[in-house]
Amino acid sequence: MEKTYLQSIIQINEEGYLTDFTQWTKEIGIEIAKEQGIEMTDKHWEVIDYIHDKYKKEEPLSIRGIKKSGVINIKEFYQLFPGGPLKKATLIAGIPKPKSCI
Amino acid sequence: MQKTKVKKMLFILSKATIENVYAAFIMANGARMEGIESEIFFTFFGLEAIQKKKLEHLRVATVGNPAMHIPTMLGGLPGMEALATKMMKKEMEKLDMPPVSEFLEILADSGCKLWACKLALEMFHLKEEDLIDDLDGILTVGDFYNRADQENTHLLFI
Questions:
Q1: How far is B34 from A84, CA to CA, in rounded Å?
Q2: Is A47 a member of any domain?
Q3: A59 vs chain B: nearest CA distance in angstroms?
Q4: Is residue A99 part of a domain?
Q5: Is B8 strand, coil or helix?
Q6: What pTM value is reported for the model?
Q7: A chain contacts of residue B100, beta-carbon cutoff 8 Å
Q8: What ipTM was predicted for this assembly?
């Protein structure tokens, strides 16, 4: 599937996740966040940076990992990305939805 | 993104064997991760999972558990439960599954409500101070049902 963000055509899957991370830019991240009703702040970006770092190292994301990350605690994480924080954060970050059950 | 129809999951945990406790925890945490509200009501032996002194000593049942694939007689030998528990915990650690105390912290921080059953507490002569600090309160069955009194809520007995 395709979707237009800021005049560029982006490849996405049926859930809206980017299928090609190289197409991702910070501006597109802001647009996706807006669709989810999230206004990006510095703290949001710190989390996105952490998620990108894990993605590049091919390390799986989990809520336990967030707890240990030192970037953010779980309570804040749920406040920043309401309604399924890892799902929302990875959507904004332009990477695939995590497959883990924990 | 599709809107989920399930709004709230309520779990009743009545058992203290590791596999049951983790089933409840993983399902409750998984609900929160999907943006679904979740709560756990600890009753009967399930209370062991929220007793400060007991929660790190939960075990796998080796007797009366056909999935262990060992003869029941052997399962009853001294040390068998401890051995099976140790092996299971090792496998869980490999999958980055947190220990019980850490899992309870994660659940509480994620907004999962943790309740103790009033009747079971009285039956086991337990006091609130015997239970974890993250507990949200002590409820009667009626109180718990009231929490289920909204659309798209599911109750699950474990």
A1: 4
A2: yes
A3: 12
A4: no
A5: strand
A6: 0.89
A7: none
A8: 0.87
What is the span of the domain harbouring residue A40? 2-93
Q: B153 near B5, Cβ under 8 Å? A: no
Q: Is A101 a catalytic residue?
A: yes
Per-residue pLDDT reduced to its tens digit, A53-91:
999 999 889 999 899 888 999 999 999 999 899 999 999
Q: Give the DSSP H/E element, type plus range, for residue A89.
A: helix A85-93
Residue A87 and residue B32: Cβ atoms within 8 Å? no
Q: What is the CA radius of gyration of chain A?
A: 13
Residue indicated by tokens 């507490």: B121
Q: How many CB pairs under 8 A join A and B?
A: 49
Tell me the residue type at B99. P
Here the tokens at position A39 are 């206004």
Query: SS3 of B155, please?
Result: strand
A57 domain residue, yes or no: yes
Beta strands A8-11 and A2-5: pairing type? antiparallel
Whole-number Å distance between alpha carbons of A17 and B66 = 42
Q: How many domains does chain A have?
A: 1
Q: How far apart are CA A34 and CA A92, in angstroms?
A: 9
Q: Which helix (H) or strand (E) holds A11?
A: strand A8-11
